[in-house]
Amino acid sequence: MNGILAVNAFLKGEKFDILHNHIVSAAQSLGITLKIKNNQELLFSREKPDFVLFWDKDVNLAKTLENRGIPVFNSARAISLCDDKAKTYLTLENEVAQPKTLIAPFSFFITDYSDFVNQAIEALGLPLVFKECCGSFGEQVFLCGSAEEIMACITDKPFLLQEYIEGGNEDVRLEIVGGRCVAAMKRTNLKDFRSNVTNGGTAEPYTPTTKEFQLAVKACALLGLDFGGVDILNHSLVCEVNSNAHIINLMKTTGIDPAPEILKQIIETI
């Protein structure tokens, strides 16, 4: 079986190289030939592999590949829903418990959001969490203690405001593959309200509760994910869902490698 690992042409660094090469090695161990190609190369390529493992967020390219008849994992729709935190929230709303969230009203240009911010503070309280709708590794996420701090975070990018969950510097990450939890870890950050290991957090192996498992599986199903990393706060609230979570820290923490499980799920699906 021949596949392509789709990566971003403009996102470079050792941690990405380690991840991509690891996935290729995992594929080789399963008898799969997996070639790394970036999104720019794939745009002009006319190859038709058996599948594309899409480790990027170039949703338009993912859809282009699907239109060419190539199976893409995760799907363009699933990646789109996960990459935009507002879309994630709306897809899960009324189905899966989440922190209270207000999505900023759409504007065609940079505008004065002070009225919205003041109403959001009344509804959500302070401090609250500011999140740009698109971002990874905890970036573009800020804890704000005043209207002035919120306003200082606003750019021309879509954003949302979310209630601050006490103890939010600790969460659990479940890696779900084909409706199964293949690995999980608890992350804690004593120096930052964001639990991400990238931001200085620490991680330890974790056994999810039945409730956490059910939340994670339902979230992935609603978002159309074949595999995904689900972050849960206070054992009861889905915080974020990642369509292509960085699995190296999870593997180092738990000793469990999700890559072969992801590839096996793809083989079973196609």
Write a brief structural summary.
With about 270 residues, the chain is an alpha+beta fold. Helices cover about 35% and strands about 25% of the residues.
Strand content: 25-35%
Give the low-confidence spans: none
* Principal-axes shape call: globular
Output the radius of gyration.
19 Å
End-to-end distance: 11 Å
Secondary-structure element order, N to C:
EHEHEHEHHEHEEHEEEEHEEHH
The main sheet comes to: 5 strands, antiparallel
- Total helices: the number is 10
Topology, number of strands: 13
Biggest sheet, strands in spatial order?
Answer: 11-10-9-12-13
User: How confident is the prediction overall: mean pLDDT?
Assistant: 95
Task: Describe the protein's architecture and organization.
The chain is 36% helix and 26% strand. The protein is globular and about 55 Å long. The termini are close together. 40% of the residues are buried. The strands form three sheets. The protein has a five-stranded antiparallel β-sheet, sandwiched between helices. Strands 2-1-3-4 form a four-stranded parallel β-sheet. Strands 5-8-6-7 form a four-stranded antiparallel β-sheet, with helices on both faces. The mean pLDDT is 95. By secondary structure, the chain is an alpha+beta fold.
